[in-house]
Records
---
Amino acid sequence: MNDNAFHKKGYEISTDKQKLDFDLIFNYLDKQSYWAKGMPQEKLRIALDNSMCFGVYKNNAQVGLARVITDKATFAYLCDVFILEGHRGTGLSKWLMQTILAHSELQGLRRWSLATADAHGLYSQFGFSIVSNPENWMQIHSPYKKD
């Protein structure tokens, strides 16, 4: 992993939820993401509280995030992955993925899952592939609606 190279540039990845910048995360998800527009603040607070959160920081200011929803034994769902625009193109997303997949509490899982509209190239580098037998998967999808 590239820990030392990124640390020398002032970056770190932390799972300490106390460091999360809720306003930055909410603003990004609500205004810039295509997948979470309209998420109510109270729903985001619950989501963060009940997930493993990997915050990406530059000189202690948050510049990215990934959430992992997991039972830590058999399954993990990766979501809400983002790096702020001014920090993209530096390899941070790859470092974030390496860090998540190497985390001690996420070893030996039978299945990882995620949904993406535009980052297949990134995730395929880490072993993710198109769902085989998609006819076996079902969902209930209820997009957020702003009043």
---
Amino acid sequence: MFFDAKSIDEIASKLANTIPPGLNHLKEDLEKNFHAVLQGALSRLDLVTREEFEVQKLVLAKTRANLEALEKRVAALERQALSKEEL
């Protein structure tokens, strides 16, 4: 999955800004390391884009509607079968 590089840069920068003033000389290196760690960790996650999620949500809703219609049909057929048996 693709992650917005700007967002990762912002997070890495915020993390680097939390470094105590005495370690400011390491700030640039730490920011690069934070960026690499975040990029690596996020790329290992099994995530989908919002667009993919919305598509699957629509597919699920359609499948659920089809299932409900089939359940009603089966119930009607069962009622018909029972009423024929009673005759």
